[in-house]
Amino acid sequence: xxxxxxxxxxxxxxLCANSLDALKKMDDNSINLxxxxxxxxxxxxxxxxxxxxxxxxxxxxxxxxxxxxxxxxDGSFVVDIGGAYEKGTPTYSLYQFKVLIKMCDExxxxxxxxxxxxxxxALPAPIEWVNKRKLRAKTxxxxxxxxxxxxxxxxxxxxxxxxxxxxxxxxxxxxxxxFIKDEGTVRPSGHVLGKSSWSKNNGGAIPxxxxxxxxxxxxxxxxxxxxxLKIKGHPARFPSGLPEFFIKFLTEENDLVVDIFAGSNTxxxxxxxxxxxxxxxxxxxxxxxxxxxRFIDSIDDAEKAYSNIMNEQFVHIP
Length: 318
Fold this sequence. Notes:
Number of domains: 2
Strand content: 15-25%
CATH topology of the largest domain: Rossmann fold
Number of strands: 12
Distance between the termini: 24 Å
CATH superfamily of the largest domain: Vaccinia Virus protein VP39
Helix content: 25-40%
Shape: globular
CATH class of the largest domain: Alpha Beta
Number of helices: 10
Strand order of the largest sheet: 9-5-6-4-3-10-11-2-1-12
Structural class: alpha/beta
Order of helices and strands: EEHEHEHEHEHEEEHHEHEHHE
């Protein structure tokens, strides 16, 4: 029996494994949602590993083919892919769009809807074209492709991710007569306004496909434990609000959520909080061991878990 390296919790487990191998061992049509952020095709090599643009599409699509096979017919594949520039020129690469086209045209996915994650706290980049030569605006939006097998029967419920009403909208709901003087007023857009249409409180507004979440984590338990134990945290973490949105939107409690490029295991931790079963796969043993900090309050217990995982012992976190 193959030895497992990593840890488990009440709802899931994080394994030090190549996700190509790990996915092959999973049952076909068993996953409700795969939500992940693979290493981007950046020109500069990163410590966590990233592929060259020239081979990136084929590299990522080998994972996507397996995801398609393992995904339930009503399941979803959500992949966050950041932008990059071509080498030596201020020309924006089309690699994330080429990934999308291949996954749809050759693998069989359908694009349920494109989303865009705006990170207001993004630093100015790329340095050459933004900071030095002042030729481009900073890049602060990632493409997030929401893919599925069956766009009609794909599980989704937007009422689970409603946005808070604005103060003006709250006033309109409580007193539509203040805003709509004549029943049946036709707006320039063609919308017909009626007082009864605006008097119902639905608990929030339907969210847009632009998700605005700052990626400015600075004092989380994960980072505090990393600092206390002098362990380098994963340098490319996405905010928990990003997977949280899609987990709430596209799954129900006890559904299975998978992250094939786990990093610091933000997806697993978020799934745990939302009572979803989860599986996370990450190649780096160091990143797997450190990601356990998200689930362990005590610094002493965190240090022990890290040491055990680094010594290739499988740890259960109550």
